[in-house]
Design a protein that fits this description.
Length: 111
């Protein structure tokens, strides 16, 4: 017998991707856009990975949790990471029950 909850899964599935619409650069605006079928509101989570590239190996990067404004599909915000920082960007949307994640690793080049 198939549990009833399995019948709900197809209705919660959405196909979407995100892309950087600007090159992630030290202390510049970072812009992303969503394409496909998701359900706003979206949020992007920028998580620093790898060693710090700041002087004396001081960790100055912070996790960025940014909501897309006005239930939109684009967002821009300052990326306050040192040059050559590495990070993972994760975009998620909130549905009735589920949360969906897409991730892209990236390195922040020198301006």
């Amino acid at each position: 017998m198939i549990p009833f909850s399995l019948f709900l899964i197809p209705s919660l599935v959405a196909a979407y991707t995100f892309k950087f619409t600007s090159v992630p650069t030290q202390c510049q605006e970072l812009s992303l856009s969503i394409e496909g079928q998701g359900s706003p509101p979206y949020q992007v989570l920028i998580i620093p990975v790898g060693p710090s590239t700041a002087a004396n190996n001081v960790e100055v990067r912070k996790v960025i949790d940014q909501t897309f404004p006005d239930n939109g599909t684009t967002v821009s915000f300052p990326l306050r990471f040192p040059a050559n920082s590495q990070f993972v960007a994760t975009v998620r949307f909130f549905a009735l029950i589920s949360i969906s994640f897409l991730s892209h690793p990236h390195t922040c080049p020198t301006p």
